[in-house]
């Protein structure tokens, strides 16, 4: 199954993590478009602007950090899953938090998957490749574009 042309919306405030995730995605060979928001307000502004633009195509996948400035990832997740125009976009929490409350709360908010980031470069690349392989190659996702 081809994965070219998929859009990943990366909501992450750490420049180093953004760069590493983008590099890990490049190693898969698929031609993904990665759109980045560096805080929760920017993320929701971007996502809400999609419904205002008739030809705009929502992302195929959202990678969401929990610990964001301005509006944290928990609030962003709650807003995405409460919005009928956005709720079907798969959201993967990709964060450093391994706190049981964060994990449980994310699933209460209907996150599709919760993954703790590794600080080990090799492991982080493996995680990102696994996300790409499962969510963009293997899983059947809803058609949410125009």
From TrEMBL:
Residues 7-132 form the Response regulatory domain. Keywords: Phosphoprotein. Gene3D superfamilies: 3.40.50.2300. The keyword Phosphoprotein applies. Coiled coil: none annotated. This is Response regulator. It holds the Pfam family Response_reg. GO terms for biological process: phosphorelay signal transduction system. InterPro entries: CheY-like_superfamily (IPR011006), Sig_transdc_resp-reg_receiver (IPR001789), TCS_response_regulator (IPR052893). The modification 4-aspartylphosphate is found at residue 65.
